[in-house]
Amino acid sequence: MVDEEPLMKLVGVTKRFGHVIALKDVDFEVRAGECVGLVGDNGAGKSTLAKIMIGFYQPDSGEIYFEGKKVVFNSPSDARRLGIEMVYQDLALLDAMSIWRNFFLGKELTKTIGPIKLLDKKSMKTICKNFLTSIGIRVRSVDEPVGVLSGGERQSVAIARTVHFGAKLLILDEPTTALSFKEAEKVLEYINELKKRGLGIVVISHNIYHVYEVADRFTILDKGVKIADYLYRKDVTPQDIVDIITKKKAL
Q1: How far apart are CA 173 and CA 50, in angstroms?
Q2: Cα(196)–Cα(224) distance, rounded to whole angstroms?
Q3: CA-CA distance, 201 to 126, in Å (whole number)?
Q4: Do 109 and 165 meet the contact criterion of CB atoms below 8 Å apart?
Q5: Does the reported pTM lie above 0.85?
Q6: Is the dihedral of CA 147, 148, 152, 158 positive or negative?
Q7: Per residue in 111-120, pLDDT tens?
Q8: Residuewise pLDDT in 10s, the chain (251 residues)
Q9: At what angle do helices 151-164 and 181-196 cross, to 10 degrees?
């Protein structure tokens, strides 16, 4: 059941880069347990809006609310402390490192033996394997380097890492780009599973047909302006969205 109160709400957000207005008076919200498709053509402002949600950019005007409280993010670490994470298209995984090392990268578990502090490899491997299995992600061995994984497996590991460490709001940047049809379907199934777990999810994608499979509603941007909000998926078809973006259909 989707909560009535937005998990995150942006009100009247405007962002300029010099003389260029990247976003103009944009309202946006996402609730726990739902997926919002944030769509639009290149230069529409999708990435800028997402980076404001994670604290990478600060808006020139407008307000941000998270879990009902007004917040100000000075850096991504401020947003991360509240449970807001973004998985970028390049995933930020290290190919030469094992799956479990990538999973705990920057958040390694340690154990103390006398005066010496060591990595608790056994615990990290067990936690990584059990967590991936619990959410339906199968890998041959968590000792394998990430570089041998398929695109869909890499995407799933990157997303799972954020969920394990307490993400409440997950922003996915082009999560099915360059994936085969079968792999894309697995990632989309995983997104639906995360909704059931109560996460709020924002999917940025050029593939309208993929995002349509998981989004509960859609926000469409064009040149920094919100031009449409569809509160229910049933109110719009994938082709309608494509036609709006390409201006073949009037609003």
Answers
A1: 9
A2: 31
A3: 27
A4: no
A5: yes
A6: negative
A7: 998 888 999 9
A8: 444 789 999 999 999 999 999 999 999 999 999 999 999 998 899 999 999 999 999 999 999 999 999 999 999 999 999 999 998 866 678 889 999 999 998 889 999 988 889 999 999 999 999 988 887 777 889 999 998 888 888 888 888 888 888 899 999 998 888 778 888 888 888 898 889 989 999 999 888 999 999 999 999 999 999 999 999 899 999 999 999 998 866 66
A9: 10
Q: Which two tokens stand for residue 30?
A: 């996402």
In the predicted model, what is the mean pLDDT of the chain? 90
- How far apart CA 239 and CA 50 sit, in angstroms, is 24
Record the tokens describing residue 54, joined without a space.
Answer: 């994670």
Question: What are residue 85's DSSP bridge partners?
Answer: 170
125 is written with which tokens? 């491997």
